[in-house]
């Protein structure tokens, strides 16, 4: 009799253990999948401009091709070679990856775009996409450049972006903020950083 009760108890315990392990495995898979999605969204935002500039299957190569002047009190937290990730003193990230809840973040990316790529071809690509607006011509390092707004969803990100091409190299600047009003309140600081950018 005792043996039957013990067997039933063991069977019940095994069942509980299997259910617990299965639940834990599902939770771990869910957490890992969520983290991969967040990382992908972040990299999509960071690489968005480079993908538009490159018209071939060859990836861009990050290189130290630019220099800039960092403002007093601002921080550069970049860990990616050939880039800068500058944050205002009051910067706070939003709830989702890529979102900004306070202050601004300025990403500067440099790389190679391959031969025969121009601002005109890049502008033509921008005009095909509904999230880009207010496309204007400007200058960076005394070279022709483009300036435009990019409003993305999932995550919701407002950005002011710049592109400049020199030969086979490009520099992209992405100014991320909560909204247009926040961006405009930092316009003097944005201009100071963008105007300090130089090709090496």
Secondary structure elements and their pairing?
Layout: H1 2-53, E1 66-67, E2 75-76, E3 83-87, E4 92-93, E5 100-102, E6 104-112, H2 119-127, E7 132-140, E8 143-152, E9 157-166, E10 169-177, H3 180-185, H4 187-196, E11 198-199
Antiparallel strand pairs: 1-11, 2-3, 3-6, 4-5, 6-10, 7-8, 8-9, 9-10
Q: Can you tell me the CATH architecture?
A: 3-Layer(aba) Sandwich
Structural class: alpha+beta
**For the record, what CATH class applies?**
Alpha Beta
> Unreliable runs, pLDDT <50, ≥5 residues?
36-62
Distance between the termini: 85 Å
Main-sheet strand order equals: 2-3-6-10-9-8-7
Rg measurement, Å: 24 Å
Mean pLDDT: 74
Major beta-sheet overview? 7 strands, antiparallel
* N to C succession of SSEs: HEEEEEEHEEEEHHE
State the CATH superfamily name. Mog1/PsbP, alpha/beta/alpha sandwich
How many domain modules?
1
Strand content: 25-35%
Q: Number of helix segments?
A: 4
Percent helix, as a range, is 25-40%
Number of extended strands: 11
Please name the CATH topology: Protein Transport Mog1p, Chain A
The dominant shape is elongated
């Amino acid at each position: 009799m005792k043996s039957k009760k013990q067997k039933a108890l063991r069977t019940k315990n095994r069942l509980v253990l299997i259910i617990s392990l299965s639940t834990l495995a599902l939770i771990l898979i869910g957490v890992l999948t969520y983290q991969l999605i967040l990382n992908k969204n972040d990299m999509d935002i960071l690489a968005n401009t480079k993908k538009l500039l490159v018209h071939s299957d060859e990836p861009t190569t990050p290189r130290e091709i630019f220099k800039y002047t960092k403002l007093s009190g601002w921080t550069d937290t970049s860990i990616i070679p050939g880039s800068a990730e500058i944050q205002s003193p009051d910067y706070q990230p939003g709830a989702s990856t890529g979102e900004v809840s306070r202050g601004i973040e300025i990403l500067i990316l440099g790389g190679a775009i391959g031969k025969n790529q121009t601002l005109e071809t890049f502008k033509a690509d921008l005009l095909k996409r509904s999230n880009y607006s207010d496309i204007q011509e400007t200058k960076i390092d005394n070279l022709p450049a483009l300036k435009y707004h990019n409003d993305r969803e999932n995550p919701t990100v407002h950005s002011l972006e710049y592109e400049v091409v020199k030969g086979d190299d490009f520099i992209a600047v992405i100014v991320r903020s909560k909204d247009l009003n926040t961006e405009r309140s930092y316009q003097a600081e944005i201009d100071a950083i963008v105007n300090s950018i130089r090709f090496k």
